[in-house]
Design goal:
The complex is a heterodimer of chains A (171) and B (378).
Chain A: E1 3-4, H1 7-17, E2 22-25, E3 30-32, H2 37-46, E4 54-62, E5 67-75, E6 80-88, E7 95-97, H3 106-117, E8 120-122
Parallel strand pairs in A: 1-6, 3-6, 7-8
Antiparallel strand pairs in A: 2-3, 4-5, 5-6
Chain B: E1 6-10, E2 22-28, E3 31-38, H1 46-50, H2 59-65, H3 70-85, H4 91-120, H5 125-145, E4 154-155, E5 158-159, H6 167-190, H7 193-199, H8 207-212, H9 218-222, H10 229-232, H11 253-277, E6 291-292, E7 298-299, E8 309-317, E9 320-328, E10 336-340, H12 342-345, H13 350-354, H14 359-369, H15 373-377
Antiparallel strand pairs in B: 1-2, 2-3, 4-5, 6-7, 8-9, 9-10
Helix pairs in contact in B: 2-3, 3-4, 4-5, 4-11, 4-14, 5-6, 6-11, 11-14
The chains are: A alpha/beta (171), B alpha+beta (378).
Chain lengths: 171, 378
């Protein structure tokens, strides 16, 4: 059975090695500074006690206040998983470090995150869009990409009549 | 003599790309010097669509990502939502999930192996034989849920309905036949000169590169890495069945083909155990606010509101690690719905495998990855 290395534990280990690199730690995930992601991840991959050699899933989430990139890491040697995150508050020009030098598996997934969420990955060897064509307006997975008619903003009030929404009781 | 590189577009409409997928090959004579993938022809933006629908309404989308293996797509998604809500499906539902997943794996590998033989030049005969078995499995799916391809069978907290009484006899009958058929296929394909000549030593993927590129599934195991989520992180009732992880040695196209045929035999083994061990009982968990379907089976509340949080649920689909990353904000629809699709990520080392080979090699290498374009583009 796969053991989960909690965000608090992984944050503790990163903090010992790179003081100040951890921004925030919750039981779910450790958030590291965007500009130190490559060195932290190289350590997570190469340290024999951690050995997170396999990048399971890389994806981006628009949390409205900030954009977030989540990395699900898997250690095949120790059969453990952990979650690492990076945040960026710049919605106009979000940029985080590319992890392709650490895990090649990030290559297509970062291109996807750029295409759909608009996060630039500095140092990516081939930073093109992947599913949509060059010139496509905006990045569709952003919550503010589409303003629905009637002033309903997609992602903020998705079900007319939801409690607390503008159309409460009329749904 | 002055020469210059020549660009060949394989696809988007080409039988060897298995869907609308395009490969731009730059050639120097017959040798490939560069390979570029162009995808997105089947992009339907499922991740955005899912943010506007309830958790239960999203299950049919998971049929249509990997449309060759809908059951496993359903299962990965409902497991992620169950993890998010802290729901546990009852015992019988867990076993039905194992049975459906393994039938689906067999059917999907039938397609992969048959069409791979097609790519190698054994034109249509193996595929037609393989489709005979696949048809029987699809008949079983039709019995269980009324659909053959887009099954929509798994539910949050169980499965949509119990299997009818005629299902188990038909499954046992099928399990009697399948080993004989597998022997036939092994005799037909394993030592087949065309397949061996086209695939042995072609598209070699070393284990270190496979792990670095996040490759999963039969492709990773063919490179010699004994990694199977059914063993490493068991879900449903996989911890109660006995089976082996099939591993290759050289990581070439031939090994991927061997691993798939070996996994088909392991699927039969799992199905035989599951047919004996499946208990009676409910097929859906008791949930507060549950609705009752016309057939009498309970189902999750229509507007299921998982607690605020996030969950990553994953399974071993026929193509590899299929994961769903779901972020909930407490509303009836996912705040973020991400599909970690094995077909897409297994394409990462395609360039490394094809450069230096010939165009004919590129066709069998792409066939051996076994992509489903619905899952690549989502």
């Amino acid at each position: 059975m796969t053991a989960v290395l909690s965000g608090l534990e992984i944050a503790h280990r990163i903090e010992q090695r790179f003081p100040g690199a951890v921004v925030e730690a919750t039981p779910e995930a450790a958030v590291v500074q965007a500009e130190r992601a490559v060195e932290v991840c190289t350590y997570l991959r190469d340290d024999p006690e951690l050995a997170f050699s396999f990048l399971s899933c890389l994806t981006a989430v628009d949390r409205l206040d900030y954009l977030e990139v989540a990395y699900h890491l898997q250690s095949i040697r120790h059969n453990r998983v952990t979650v690492l995150k990076v945040k960026t508050y710049d919605r106009e020009n979000p940029e985080v470090q590319s992890l392709v030098p650490v895990w090649r598996g990030a290559h297509l997934q970062e291109r996807e995150a750029y295409d759909l969420m608009g996060i630039r990955f500095s140092g990516h060897p081939d930073p093109r869009r992947i599913f949509l064509w060059e010139g496509f307006p905006g990045h569709p997975l952003r919550k503010d990409w589409l303003n629905m008619p009637g002033g309903l903003m997609a992602g903020l009030e998705r079900f007319p009549g939801e409690p607390g929404g503008k159309l409460e009781g009329r749904g | 003599m002055k020469t210059e590189p020549f660009v060949v577009n394989v696809g988007p409409q080409h039988p060897s790309t298995h869907g609308v997928f395009r490969l731009r090959l730059t050639l120097d004579g017959e040798r490939i010097i560069d390979a570029d993938m162009v995808m997105g022809y089947l992009h339907r933006s499922m991740e955005k669509l899912a943010e506007e629908r309830t958790y239960t309404q999203n299950i049919p989308f998971t049929d249509r990502t990997d449309y060759v293996a809908a059951m496993t797509g359903n299962l990965a998604y409902v497991l992620a939502v169950e993890k998010l809500c802290g729901i546990e499906a009852p015992e019988r539902a867990q076993w039905l999930r194992v049975i459906m997943s393994e039938l689906q794996r067999f059917a999907s590998h039938c397609m992969a192996v048959g069409i791979f033989a097609n790519d190698c030049g054994a034109w249509q005969t193996p595929v037609m034989h393989m489709f005979r078995e696949r048809e029987k499995i699809l008949d079983l799916f039709e019995m269980a849920c009324g659909a053959r391809l887009t099954t929509n069978y798994m539910r949050i907290g169980g499965v949509s309905r119990d299997i009818p009484p005629e299902f188990m006899p038909a499954l046992r009958q099928l399990l009697q036949e399948l080993p004989k058929r597998m022997d036939e296929y092994d005799g037909l394909l394993l030592e087949n000169e065309i397949i061996v000549a086209r695939s042995r030593g072609v598209g070699v993927l070393p284990p270190e590169l496979a792990i670095a590129c996040s490759v999963s599934g039969p492709m990773l195991r063919a490179s010699g890495v004994a990694w199977d989520i059914r063993k490493a992180d068991p879900y449903a009732a996989y911890d109660k069945v006995d089976f082996d992880i099939c591993v290759g040695t050289s990581g070439d196209v031939y090994d991927r083909f061997l691993v798939r045929t070996a996994e088909m035999r392991q699927s039969i083994r799992i199905l035989e155990q599951a047919a004996e061990m499946i208990p009676d009982g409910p097929v859906h968990a008791e949930m507060a606010g549950a609705t009752v379907q016309p057939g009498g089976a309970p189902s999750a509340p229509l507007a299921l509101r998982p607690p605020v949080g996030e969950a990553y649920g994953r399974i071993e689909s026929p193509r590899g690690e299929l994961g769903f990353y779901i972020v909930s904000d407490g509303s009836p629809a996912p705040f973020r719905f991400h599909i970690r699709s094995p077909s897409f990520i297994n394409l990462t080392p395609l360039r490394d495998m094809t450069v230096g080979g010939t165009v004919a090699d590129a066709v069998v290498i792409l066939g051996s990855i076994d992509i489903v374009v619905g899952e690549v583009d989502r």
